Amino acid sequence: MKIFKILLTLFILLCTFNITAEAKNKKNTPDYRMEYLNLEWWQKYNDPVLTDYITTAFNNNQDLKIASLNVKQSEQVVKMAFAGQLPQVGFQGDVFRDFSSSTVRFGDVVIPDYKQSNFFLPLTMSYEVDIWGENYLKTKSVKKQHEIVKQNERASYISLTSAVASQYFNLIKFDKLINAQEELVKLQTEIVRMEEIKYKNGLCPVTELMDEKQLLTQLKEELNIYKDKREVVGRELGVLTGLREKDLIAMPRTEYSELALLTVPDAINAEVIQYRPDFVKAEDYIEKIGIDAKVAKRDFLPKFVLYGQAGFNAYNLGNIFGDHTFKSLLGFMPSIDLFTGGAKMARLKWTKIELEKAQQLYEKTILTSIQEVNDSLSAAKTREKNYKESVKRYNLENEKFILADKKFNIGAKSKLDRMKDEERLLVAEKDEVNGKINYLISTIDVYKAVGGKDLTTVNDSL
Fold first, then answer.
1. Which domain holds residue 279?
2. What value does the CA radius of gyration of the chain take, rounded to a whole number of Å?
3. I need a labelling partner for 262 at 20 to 30 A (CA). Which of 48, 367, 439, 440 fits?
């Protein structure tokens, strides 16, 4: 009995130590999600407002919280699987009374009818001896599934932060486009007024006036579209960051002219796909199914269970802890399934087929990943070229407007013609704004395609 008490005390102390150590380790472990957030990368855009939006999304976004909760749930599943490798100890008491017992025979010894109470208060222990390592492999499989869930979380962070940045840049774009469009509407309204005066004085045909009025309606329609798109983008950004619309309006935005441009590399090594969450998940899934196949094979082997009980057995509650009431037993139970209706064989075949599917998925992931990296890089380089061309076109239009303004000042050009030159300058400015923002968003697409790595140094880290 003393040995039993000592063993029980050591078991309780060991469990307490493990729980305390685990809690202490969690307290001292830095938040791995900050690595997923990757603020160092977003700071390269030199926009503190953007990083504020991303930090706000980190604190408020429900999808990120759900992804983190999924990881926490997965951690508990790993603990449950690991518990299957440990001995199970529990209390299973048995208290009953025989009011009228039948005659009991032990050979020639006959015990007639009797009445009695029975109090049995034992600790019960069972432990499946993992000779074939099956339970260990089950835990290993669950750990692989946990790694897959963590990659899902990382993918959520990459996708969401990229969406926040893209919508933020779109918001700046529509701010700038609306300002330019309002100037266009203002200029065109004045042009229509002047054309009406010309028409009344017989200096232009009615078709010319109608063309200018038609252009004014088109410009107003385009302005309404820009305003509507800005509201849509604002609401989407609000959902991503967890902010209400009134908070978004009050939140400052960086001036368009201060947005920094990043340079994309001429080429990206194909090995970069190894950092993508979907690639890592495909690898982990192959390993997990491979482990499951081993488990399915070992399920055909016999199992061996150790079991035991230690406690007190008495026929009088007042004597439950008295002399000669302590009872203990230890047993060893081998078992093997002789017939399961083919269930185990079906599971093994299913696992082998799933392993083949996982391998095909892995190959497909490689091809898709390389395609997405190349497509995003190609699109970014094309948008970079288009942006540079739009800058050239804007500069030329600006030079033309300066010349037109000089002609107007010396009386060599009418005010109406000067206003139309200014309109062409504003149209060129809109093209330049679209080109710049589209290029910025394309760099974000490259960032997503390479698995959340710094695209400016991605080749250096391989």
1. 31-85+130-301+336-449
2. 38
3. 367
